[in-house]
């Protein structure tokens, strides 16, 4: 029962999607489905009429009244054949176009849903992010795309209508034969559907094994993993593991023959064969004319074709329905997150006077936070102040919670207790997108947008007209202008080697580009600058340059710097050391070194390491100074 109920709801969802995506195309598809289903049945009757007249035409000639009738029916048959072909082509074209529209509208729906929650928790939560990934990935498989439903359901409905019409024709000769064909055909259709659904469930990662297969395939074929796969000689290992898992997962699908579906097909074929034999015997006895026998025989064969058409399109339909269900699960999972957190469009609870964005001192007041599902908190009653227009550096061991502080400040997550204020205004009461326009950031894992060099910087403020002079100035300050101008098409070069005329950048160049984007955002209104490991990919010269220009780059901005490199950190006005979810030391570089605590120890260790290596690079000279 549940199998059938689920199936119906899938079809209902598809019907609504189709109508919303293209009412005209849906109507054309439905109309041509009816035409291409009824024309073959009409053809069976017409061919029967021609066969019925064959004897008279042979005796009396084509010019006789029987001959003229036969010619007329032949012309009708030709017309019906044309209808079958034309309706089939139009149906196929309309269903394909409709399917493309359905896929595009679903992808927009998923993008909208993913953007909806203020934070990024839904993208980092393993369960939801997996569903989103499935929703996203399934669009790549052409057989399983939900849009394919437009074609497969059209084929399915055509097959069912053909079967029904054939049964009616056959019942005209003998009601029991018509009922037998209907019963056997319906049983076959049902069993094929059950078998198809089991296969579809397997294909779309209903099992954990299928997900792991996908993961192994991705590792073995993606450019990201290619270096490690080659260096460590992992290709054979990955292939072996893939084969073992594949054999195990296919055991469920391939080994057990869908016996019931096979039995149903055999019974349907038997009904048709018995029906043909019966009508042949009756024709031989003269109980039915040759024309009637031809109609009955064709109806039986057409009914069989209808059953096979249903079975063939049934598997594809089930694959696409499985995709649609997974897609809906992803949307529902994201919506659950959106319901738990304030949404981007939610009215601002207490907007600051005059609707201005809050500026000035940023304070974390007794902020505690744990990631969903985590057992230990990352931040515990954290008090932290970022002075207005000045720079604050946060240092601490790996996993101390430095990046988490940034995520909370950018409202990717909300504190579990305590609050974050900007010039006294609770950040939770401020419109999140509006607040984010005030913040510019350089993340250590900055996204490598495959846009042109110009666009990559200009998207620091996508809401303002592109300002070429501003782009060049930001790139120059970030130390990447010469490199970008030297690209094959200068600022118009697509930053991806996958695009024609495109070029890729090195890790350090990407990081400098990210800094340029942040500076461009600052030039256009942002006044909080976040630098999360801004020197992680920089060479010694570039790092030294960042260090010497740090004060110039951050002048007048509330800046938060996270870094394990003291060459970057020590220039900040205030430095805090984070440990156990709290601030344990606070002061300027000199004050903290004089204090002789954690900071002093970390600084000493790093300085020793650098001074042991060399003293001649600009970067190390700065660190050890
Ligand atoms: N999305 C997440 N879900 C669950 N736990 C997370 C998530 N992100 C970070 N954590 C955990 O939170 C803790 C703090 O992580 P965070 O990235 O803030 O540390 P960090 O101080 O920036 O570390 P690093 O210096 O290594 O970059 C770590 O224990 C980490 O495992």
Automatic annotation (TrEMBL):
Q: Name one GO molecular function term.
A: ATP hydrolysis activity
Extract the SUPFAM superfamilies matched here: ABC transporter transmembrane region, P-loop containing nucleoside triphosphate hydrolases
Q: Where is the ABC transporter domain?
A: 362-605
Give me the Gene Ontology terms describing cellular component: plasma membrane
Q: Which PROSITE patterns match?
A: ABC_TRANSPORTER_1 (PS00211), ABC_TRANSPORTER_2 (PS50893)
Where, per UniProt, does this protein localize? Cell membrane
Provide the transmembrane region boundaries. 70-88, 262-281
Record InterPro entries: AAA+_ATPase (IPR003593), ABC1_TM_sf (IPR036640), ABC_transporter-like_ATP-bd (IPR003439), ABC_transporter-like_CS (IPR017871), P-loop_NTPase (IPR027417), Type_1_exporter (IPR039421)
> What is the membrane topology here?
Multi-pass membrane protein
Q: What UniProt keywords apply to this chain's record, in alphabetical order?
A: ATP-binding, Membrane, Nucleotide-binding, Transmembrane, Transmembrane helix
Do you know which Pfam families this protein is assigned to? ABC_tran (PF00005)
Main location per the UniProt record: membrane
What PANTHER family does UniProt report for this protein, alphabetically?
Answer: ATP-BINDING CASSETTE SUB-FAMILY B MEMBER 10, MITOCHONDRIAL, ATP-DEPENDENT PERMEASE MDL1, MITOCHONDRIAL
The identity of this protein, by name, is ATP-binding cassette subfamily B protein
**Which species expresses this protein natively?**
Actinopolymorpha rutila
The major lineage groups are: Bacteria, Bacillati, Actinomycetota, Actinomycetes, Propionibacteriales
């Amino acid at each position: 029962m549940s199998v059938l109920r689920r199936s119906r709801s899938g079809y209902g969802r598809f019907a609504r999607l189709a109508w919303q995506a293209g009412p005209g195309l849906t109507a054309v598809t439905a109309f041509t489905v009816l035409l291409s289903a009824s024309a073959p049945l009409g053809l069976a009757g017409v061919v029967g009429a021609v066969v019925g007249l064959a004897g008279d035409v042979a005796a009396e000639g084509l010019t006789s009244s029987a001959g003229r009738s036969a010619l007329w029916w032949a012309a009708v048959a030709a017309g019906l054949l044309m209808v079958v072909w034309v309706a089939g082509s139009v149906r196929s074209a309309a269903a394909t176009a409709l399917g493309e529209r359905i896929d595009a509208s679903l992808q927009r729906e998923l993008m909208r849903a993913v953007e909806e929650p203020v934070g990024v928790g839904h993208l980092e939560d393993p369960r939801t992010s997996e569903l989103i990934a499935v929703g996203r990935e399934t669009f790549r498989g052409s057989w399983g795309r939900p849009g394919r439903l437009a074609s497969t359901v059209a084929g399915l409905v055509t097959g069912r209508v053909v079967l029904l019409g054939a049964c009616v024709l056959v019942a005209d000769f003998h009601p029991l034969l018509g009922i037998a064909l209907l019963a056997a055909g319906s049983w076959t259709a049902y069993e094929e559907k059950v078998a198809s659904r089991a296969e579809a469930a397997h294909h779309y990662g209903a099992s954990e094994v299928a997900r792991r297969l996908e993961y192994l395939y991705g590792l073995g074929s993606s450019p990201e993993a290619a270096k490690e796969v080659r260096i460590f000689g992992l290709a054979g290992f990955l292939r072996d593991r893939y084969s073992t898992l594949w054999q195990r997962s296919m055991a469920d699908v391939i080994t057990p023959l869908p016996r019931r579906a096979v039995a149903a097909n055999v019974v349907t074929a038997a009904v048709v064969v018995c029906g043909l034999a019966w009508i042949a015997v009756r024709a031989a006895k003269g109980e039915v004319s040759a024309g009637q026998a031809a109609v009955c025989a064709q109806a039986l064969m057409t009914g069989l074709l209808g059953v096979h058409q249903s079975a063939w399109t049934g598997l594809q339909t089930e694959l696409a329905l499985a995709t649609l269900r997974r897609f809906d699960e992803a949307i529902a999972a994201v919506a659950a997150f959106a319901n738990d957190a304030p949404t981007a469009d939610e009215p601002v609870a207490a907007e600051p006077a005059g609707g201005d964005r809050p500026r000035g001192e940023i304070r974390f007041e007794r902020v505690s936070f744990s990631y969903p599902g985590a057992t230990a908190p990352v931040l515990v009653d954290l008090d932290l102040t970022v002075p207005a227009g000045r720079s604050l550096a946060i240092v601490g061991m790996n996993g101390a919670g430095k990046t988490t502080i940034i995520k909370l400040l950018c409202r990717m997550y909300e504190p579990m207790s305590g609050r974050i204020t900007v010039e006294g205004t609770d950040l939770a009461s401020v419109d999140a997108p509006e607040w984010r326009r005030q913040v510019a950031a350089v993340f250590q894992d900055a996204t490598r947008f495959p846009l042109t060099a110009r666009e990559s910087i200009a998207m620091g403020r996508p809401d303002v007209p592109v300002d070429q002079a501003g782009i060049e100035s930001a790139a120059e300050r970030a130390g990447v202008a010469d490199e970008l101008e030297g690209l094959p098409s200068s600022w118009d070069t697509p930053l991806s080697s996958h695009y024609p005329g495109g070029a890729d950048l090195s890790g350090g160049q990407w990081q400098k580009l990210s800094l340029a984007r942040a500076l461009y955002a600052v030039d256009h209104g942002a006044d909080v600058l976040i630098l999360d490991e801004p020197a992680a990919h920089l060479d010694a010269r570039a790092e030294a340059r960042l260090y010497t220009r740090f004060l110039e780059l951050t002048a007048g901005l509330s800046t938060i710097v996270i870094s394990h490199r003291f060459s970057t950190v020590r220039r900040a006005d205030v430095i805090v050391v984070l440990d156990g979810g709290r601030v344990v030391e606070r002061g300027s570089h000199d004050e903290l070194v004089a204090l002789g605590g954690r900071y002093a120890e970390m600084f000493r260790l790093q300085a020793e390491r650098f001074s042991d290596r060399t003293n001649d690079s600009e970067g190390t000279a700065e660190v050890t100074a």
